[in-house]
Write a structure and sequence with these properties.
It is a single chain. 29% of the residues lie in helices and 35% in strands. The protein folds into 3 domains: 130 residues, Gcn5-related N-acetyltransferase (GNAT) (Aminopeptidase, 3-Layer(aba) Sandwich), CATH 3.40.630; 144 residues, Aminopeptidase, CATH 3.40.630; 93 residues, SCP2 sterol-binding domain (Nonspecific Lipid-transfer Protein, Chain A, 2-Layer Sandwich), CATH 3.30.1050. The N terminus is likely disordered. Strand 10 and strand 11 form a beta hairpin. It is of the alpha+beta class. It is globular, with a radius of gyration of 23 Å. The strands form 2 sheets. Strands 1, 2, 3, 4, 5, 6, 7, 8, 9, 10, 11, 12 and 13 form a 13-stranded mixed beta sheet that branches. It has a 5-stranded mixed beta sheet with strand order 16-15-14-17-18.
Length: 398
């Protein structure tokens, strides 16, 4: 049987971290072309992430492309789960269509598994590629817009004070307080904070509440439009009802010149209930993808409903990572999980189907409708209860 040139090229692919400044430079040229960014930005990006968090794929000495990794965490069920964000996946155009991207991702997933990383999350330009290595849609990235003139001036009782990027410790503490009560929000890598706060575009940071008792913050920038500007919120949290109301009042105070206010939030954005009317609109929405890398560890570290004391028997299929395949028992008590091998395999699913269940994006019944899993009605109800929670979302894009 003859072997095609693409098959021959696949056989000699190697994946690893760059070992020289030349390899970093060549990878930068490829990714700068793929994502239409400058090489100056690439050098900053490498400094932020570190050389060890770059991976490249080669055919002999020829670099075909690569990706980058953000080691950080993600909150699910009130617990921080170690996670690696995968970003900047790019292959030089002349080498596309020959399996290089699939090989790069498959090797990366296996390496992360060997390192004991529980989860990996990414944004996909094409979902089909990532689904081949076990990723599935698992949460939402949603942008909203509201006309500033529609906002109502409210309560000014809480003070607002300007902050500086150097106040990162205070910002991080408030952000972590907020993020742990969500499903999906990140324990951000330092590079994500730097990319937000240290830019050439002027940014404005305000604390809600006093210095002694901060209750939230907002970070925003301006985007020029005819006759004024739009206010684009980069990040913001409120930790009390008073802070949430004060934030909307603060935004309303900009309406003499601001046309629209834009921000990223949850699919069901709680803060919108402070508004007297539903005058906001969804501008864009995108789904991020998640992969369970180390199944026992991911299930053990996640948080669960406090009042439940039960066990769920799973039968999982993972073609890329055989150690994730087989029968497992998830025992839950006092909000914590323990996993052991064995059991009856009452809930049958593949590794892709586990992602949207794990994050609380879809119920077990909904996943059965999609053909991702099989179980009795009683087991479906139990799985839905175990993985219940708020809709998963992110305001960060990487």
């Amino acid at each position: 049987m003859s072997v095609s040139s693409s098959q021959k090229r696949r056989e000699i692919y190697t994946v690893g971290s760059p070992t020289s400044s030349y390899q970093i430079q060549q990878l930068g040229r490829i990714l700068a072309q793929c994502f239409n960014v400058s090489l100056d930005y690439w050098h900053t990006y490498v400094r932020q992430l570190g050389q060890d968090n770059l991976r490249l794929i080669c055919a002999g000495k020829q670099i075909l492309g690569g990706l980058s990794l953000y080691p950080m965490g993600q909150w699910f069920g009130g617990q921080r789960i170690p996670m690696h964000g995968i970003a900047g996946v790019g292959i030089a155009p002349e080498y596309r269509g020959a399996g290089a991207a699939l090989t790069l991702l498959t090797d990366t997933v296996k390496t992360l598994h060997q390192q004991g990383v529980p989860l990996a999350t990414l944004y996909a330009s094409t979902s089909q590629l990532y689904r081949q290595v076990g990723f599935e849609q698992a949460g939402t990235y949603c942008q909203y817009q509201i006309l500033a003139a529609s906002l109502v001036i409210g309560d000014h009782s809480l003070p607002m004070s300007a902050m500086e990027p150097s106040d990162l410790k205070v910002l991080t503490q408030m952000y972590q307080q907020y993020a742990q009560h969500t499903n999906g929000n990140l324990d951000r890598h330092p590079a994500l904070w730097e990319q937000m706060l240290e830019t050439e575009t002027p940014i404005y940071i305000y604390c809600i509440g006093s210095d002694q008792q901060p209750q939230g913050y907002v970070i925003f920038t301006h985007q020029a439009v005819s006759g004024g500007y739009d206010l684009r919120i980069l990040d913001g949290v409120w930790l009390t009802p008073s802070a949430g109301q004060r934030l909307w009042t603060f935004l309303a105070d900009h309406r003499s010149l601001v046309r629209n206010i834009r921000w990223y939030g949850a699919p069901i954005e709680v803060g919108q209930l402070f508004l007297p009317e539903q005058t906001y609109q969804v501008l864009t929405t995108e789904r991020w993808l998640l992969r369970i890398i180390d199944l026992p560890k991911a299930l053990t570290l996640r948080g669960y409903p406090l009042m439940l004391e039960t066990e769920l028997h799973l039968q999982v299929e993972d073609p890329q990572l055989p150690r994730n395949s087989g029968n497992f028992v998830l025992q839950v008590a006092q909000g914590q999980g323990q996993v052991r091998s064995g059991g009856q395999g009452d809930l049958k699913l593949n590794i892709r189907g586990l992602s949207p269940l794990y994050t609380s994006m879809l119920t077990a019944q909904e996943l059965q409708m999609l053909g991702f899993l099989e179980a009795s009605p009683e087991v479906l109800a139990l799985a839905t209860l175990l993985f219940s929670g708020s809709q998963p979302w992110l305001r960060d894009h990487f």
